[in-house]
Amino acid sequence: MSTTERTADATRRHRPLPLATGATPRERARILLPEASANVAARLTSGAAVAWSEPLTITTYEAGTPSAYPMYLDQRVYQGSSGRVYPLPFVESVADDGVARDWQAVHLENSYVRLVVLPELGGRIHIGYDKSTGYDFFYRNNVIKPALVGLGGPWISGGVELNWPQHHRPATYLPVETTIEHDDDGTVTVWCHDHDPFDRMSAQHGVRLRAHSSVLELVVRLHNRTSERQTFLWWANVAAAVNDDYQSFFPEDVRYVADHARRALTAFPHADRPYYGVDYPARAEVTPGADRIDWYRNIPVPTSYMVVDSQQDFFGGYDHGAGAGFVHWAERRISPGKKQWTWGDAPFGHAWDAQLTDDDGPYVELMAGVYTDNQPDFTWLLPGETKLFTQYWYPIPAIGPAHQATPDAAVSVDREDGITASFAVTSPRPGARLLIRRGDVTLASATVDAVPGVPVSLHADGEPDGVSVELRDAAGRLLVAWAPTEVADGEPWVASEPAAPEEIDSVEELCLIGVHLAQYRHPTRSPLPYWSEALRRDPGHVGTHLALADRDYRAARYSAALEHAETALARLTRRNANPQDAEAFYLAGLALARLGRTAEAESAFGKAGWDGTWAPAAGLELARSLAARGRNRAALRVLDTLDGVVGHDARRPALRAVLLRRLGRPDDADRVLAAALGADPLDATLRVLADRPAPTDAGIRYDVALDLWGAGEVEQALAHLAEVAAAPSTPAGSWAPIAHYTAAAILADLGQADEAAEHRAAARASDATWAFPNGLDQHDVLVAALDADPGDARAAALLGMLLYAHDRRPEAAERWETAVSAGAEDPVLLRNAGLAAYNVTHDDALAWRRYEQAVALAPDDARLRYEQDQLAARLGHTNPERLAHLEPVRHLVLTRDDLTIEYVGLLTACGRAQEALDVLTTRRFHPWEGGEGRTLAAWDAARDALGLPLADPPANLGEALPEFVPPVARHASGVTDYFATSLPELLLFTRGETGGR
After folding, report:
1. CA-CA distance, 541 to 790, in Å (whole number)?
2. Interval 314-330: pLDDT, tens
3. Which fold, 414-482?
4. What does CATH list as the number for 790-859?
5. Residue 645 and residue 941: Cα distance in Å, rounded?
6. DSSP β-bridge partners for residue 410
7. Where are any strands of DSSP class E within 242-308?
8. Which fold has domain 2-60+98-396?
9. Share of the chain above pLDDT 70, in %
10. What kind of architecture, by CATH, is found in domain 540-629?
11. Among residues 133, 209, 613, 960, which one has the fewest Cβ atoms lying within 10 Å of its Cβ?
12. How far apart are CA 738 and CA 721, in angstroms?
């Protein structure tokens, strides 16, 4: 049976931190884990795994209120791919001081391990504790202390962050819904449901403990609930507390590791060349062993490395001083990704550690990638596709770094003096058999009663050549085995920047380079020049037309998308009416449906269904269309053709249940829903249809309303939209305006013009803070609103936001200016119009005027002041002019790190370096992703202007001087490096070409 635990309200009680007499700061901040209640403890004593929900009081440095302005950061380079965050509100600040905050927490425990899951922080695993050894095998951060390194702003270290569909996960600082599931065999699973805020895909991860096992299982279900093919990556980001004795271990077939995008390689574990600017071979000449990059102590700079070409399934980390560590295991066929990241064991890295914790020290991240082996490295999810996989972690006692591991056991093999094999099991194994062999000859054996947390060892004298070791259970089943690994010589490939389009030899390669740039979300290179060159050479090239059809469709250019799809079909079907791949029919059907050409769309979907690849998606779209037209039996027949031949898609049982109820078969509908919820216990639409507690998140409720509307359930859709419209704005966004506009579109379709007008009026009157519309459905309802009332300034302003995000920027600029001309007075609108005037129409005077108008309406908005100063710099305003503009609002300037840095730079440039230095020595700074070094540069410049020698920066700057030069992000020419992983600015103002998705 299942007990649902809903995410608590975001408002929490905040209290000053207690100052217990004699307590150290670490003791004051230590997270106190509650004891299980009596009935839970009884189940635990019986051997079962248990779980319960109970808040934890954790010292918390609160993240700031998100910016009211949409952040269009298309060319922001983040983890090597696009750092765009729209439509997610962007958080830009963190509190300087901590408070005691109660966080919703779900506790899992069995005989061997204890875990804590935090639903309000993306369902992350915050604590992983080995009860047998008393060791936190995951880094236990005893404070919630975010730094501004997440995709959407705040990010915390520690535990396990589950990253999808991009790194660092868009929803990492947003709540998820949870449910606790107990099985009869003593297994417990805590399910967490994440609704991707970008493309509205669905992910469920289940944190599972079994009775009598030390293994943590992560059961994952990724579902593309959209009508478009999507890209994603999955990295489980595991933090481990480190010191001079900590060693990361990888399979013995690992000979090389790669940087992001495979832009650089080095040998492993002995780095044989400079890597991240560090000459490891030279360091090893001075200090033997200093080239071993599997030891935290040897890496002095922020460094990523990802395993290249391992055929093994495990890796992990081991603390030699503590005599404990952990193993990760997952099937290599789907989980090739094995990565280490560190801030570096040097003052620069230690400063970043201090930004993320109070007293818990440094950590490394040992990250496990599924369907990915690098970053960025995105793979595809077809419409409706669900990918299922499981990852495993478990603590290991004092066996040393593992040389082989399975979910049953790990083994470490010491070959220094004979052979010593040390084993750790994950469940009790009475009568386990330990063996050391050379060929068919047994060199040593023993029978032991092995239990988790207690190592067992076996030794054999002699040379290690040709030796293998085994651990078998009492029945002879192999638990783990090790043998020497042989790897072929040869260095792996390194990525290269693609040549300019005109230099590419073939049309096929031009098409594929464009697909790569879009798939990998390259932030600074667009696929369009490659696709344009391909069509110049071959106007009918099928692959290119399909790529452009998909791109235009996502941008709501439906007619253009249809034209590309039909051009592709003309070539595909010239001699073969049944092409091998029916994607062109599917894309044509999507475009036709959006254009209101329903009969033609249904015909296209029907033909796409001839191809097994596209049958599930096309069949669902066809069934929805038929259901919306009341052709219930026909829709049900379409679903019947899909269920036996294609995989699970939570959208299908939801639509089937709707159809069965319409046909007078409510019991059958209930059975369908019950079975579907057994697989997807937190799917939002299924829960609503089954009359279970509805999602609390307004955005998810909106998506449910769209599902119902698409199936023709307009009354239910309107009821949910009413709930969405009544929901307050949150850091996840504001949904009230778009909910009203959607209701208006539905009512207009029903011929209820007066009621539709009332909803449009309500949309104009509702709170639009953080209302950042996104996606095709919202595009269409905003277009419908303007068709009904061309003077609706609110609809024009919102549509402009969406169009700008969808790379339709001239149209966005026009919509915003139309709204301004209609008399709308809104600083967000005026700021957006100013941004477009600079970036799109290149009207510098208009850009400045719009920003002046916005500032006049919101004079105390520090974000607006920062952007205006950035615009001033780009418009060539002199340093004294910029400084004069900021001086009257110095109190606002000093509330933002980025604006303060600009201000102190201007002070220095204008001969007031002492004032700049005074600010830099008295104000606390928080470094941000991509902005590393800017505070230090301002510090150096001020001291140099005063004739003072260079000096280490004070701690309040939040940064330390780097010892080595990192890989270049931007060349002297101003061109961003193709392989850049981050940039020192967010590129809000840019007149360059945007990257492609």
Report:
1. 40
2. 999 999 999 999 999 99
3. Immunoglobulin-like (2.60.40)
4. 1.25.40.10
5. 67
6. 405, 424
7. 246-249, 256-258, 265-267, 303-307
8. Beta-galactosidase; Chain A, domain 5 (2.70.98)
9. 96
10. Alpha Horseshoe (1.25)
11. 613
12. 9
